[in-house]
Design brief:
single chain, about 350 residues, alpha/beta, five-stranded mixed beta sheet, 10 helices, 10 strands, binds 5'-O-[(R)-(carboxyoxy)(hydroxy)phosphoryl]adenosine, binds zinc ion, iron, tRNA N(6)-L-threonylcarbamoyladenine synthase activity, ATPase_NBD, cytoplasm, tRNA N6-adenosine threonylcarbamoyltransferase
Length: about 350
């Protein structure tokens, strides 16, 4: 089955062609980062308009790269939520229009299920069951995964998502959007131990997270340094390192707890923050100690992309699921409500 996947939930237009027999044939992405950077974050209306502009050229590009014709496509998968409503509607309208024109089914995919399944596109995919840490700009969740659509939420952030904490903290320190890669870059030059930030909610039981206090803690530290006349690049790097270490260690502690609680030895990390090298290293070390394994996607499939949507949509289509022709999106959508396949 040849599936065209479209991702438009936020500020990236992602398109891919996935074949159930041959795997991923082609994928293309247009990132709107430069468009939003001057505003310090995503401007929803600009995002929607840009998705409209990019979608068809990207679809033509992946078809050409894969050496396929539109007439060979068996189904269209699109991100139906969660995300920005206008941006989602562009992808949904485009997918439904193409499906109608081509006489093929369309399926709406849950964006976080797409992230969760992205490591399945790698050479050594994880086997069910596993614990998944989903860390994106909008979500921080620990999920027990027993199969596609068999999701049990173990814990989540009570305030900011991990990626959001990176983005907001970076903004407070005058860094560019998106903040995750910027903080990671500065942290590489940071002096270990100069600052130590709290590990929120690790001193009490449970698997929930809270990152908004850490953001305030970082801001206060940065302001104190500046008040004392130190706004050097090195101090910025040292603060970035302390912040990143606090996030990474907090996530690692909660992952260890989730693995213990479930008795599982496989951990999947997915979403934009799973591209973070320091997080990957900390989790690799923890899983090596537990004699388990950690799985993640290649960096460009950690952040938003069309390949994960084509893959997830294909699995649901193969199980006989698809949606009607209505252009319906769900800006807020719990993954636990998804049907099992
Ligand atoms: O999954 P994603 O592309 O979009 C959402 O679904 O939200 O995640 C984007 C988030 C942003 O907050 C970005 O700052 C963060 O992922 N991110 C990173 C890194 N690369 C992207 N955070 C930390 N380290 C990175 N290397
Ligand atoms: Zn995402």
């Amino acid at each position: 089955m040849l599936v065209l996947g479209l991702e438009t939930s936020c500020d990236e237009t992602g398109v891919a062609l996935y074949d159930s027999e041959q795997g991923l044939l082609a994928d293309a992405l247009f990132s709107q980062i430069d468009l939003h950077r001057v505003y310090g974050g995503v401007v929803p209306e600009l995002a929607s308009r840009d998705h409209v502009k990019r979608m068809l050229p990207l679809i033509r590009q992946v078809l050409a790269e894969a050496g396929r014709e539109a007439g060979q496509i068996d189904a269209v998968a699109y991100t139906a939520g969660p995300g920005l409503v206008g941006a989602l509607l562009v992808g949904a309208s485009c997918a439904q229009a193409l499906a109608l024109a081509w006489g093929v089914p369309a399926v709406g995919v849950h964006h976080m299920e797409g992230h969760l399944l992205a490591p399945m596109l790698e050479a050594q995919p994880p086997a069910f069951p596993f614990v998944a840490l989903l860390v994106s700009g909008g979500h921080t969740q620990l999920v027990r995964v027993d199969g596609i659509g068999c999701y049990e939420l173990l814990g989540e952030s009570v305030d900011d998502a991990a990626g959001e904490a990176f983005d907001k903290t970076a903004k407070l320190m005058g860094l560019r959007y998106p903040g995750g890669p910027e903080i990671a870059r500065l942290a590489e030059q940071g002096t270990p131990g100069r600052f130590v930030f709290p590990r929120p909610m690790t001193d009490r039981p449970g698997l929930d997270f809270s990152f908004s206090g850490l953001k305030t803690f970082t801001l206060n530290t940065w302001q104190q340094c500046r008040d004392a006349g130190d706004d050097s690049e090195q101090t910025r790097c040292d603060i970035a390192l302390a912040f990143q270490q606090a996030v990474v260690e907090t996530l690692t502690i909660k992952c260890r707890r989730a693995l213990k609680q479930t008795g599982l030895k496989s951990l999947v990390i997915a979403g934009g923050v799973s591209a973070n090298q320091s997080l990957r290293q900390a989790l690799e070390a923890m899983l090596a100690e537990l004699k388990g394994q950690v799985f993640y996607a290649r960096p460009r499939f950690c952040t938003d992309n069309g390949a994960m949507i084509a893959y997830a949509g294909c699995q649901r289509l193969l199980a006989g699921q698809h949606d009607g022709p209505a252009i319906a999106v769900q800006p807020r959508w719990s993954m636990e409500t998804l049907p099992a396949i």
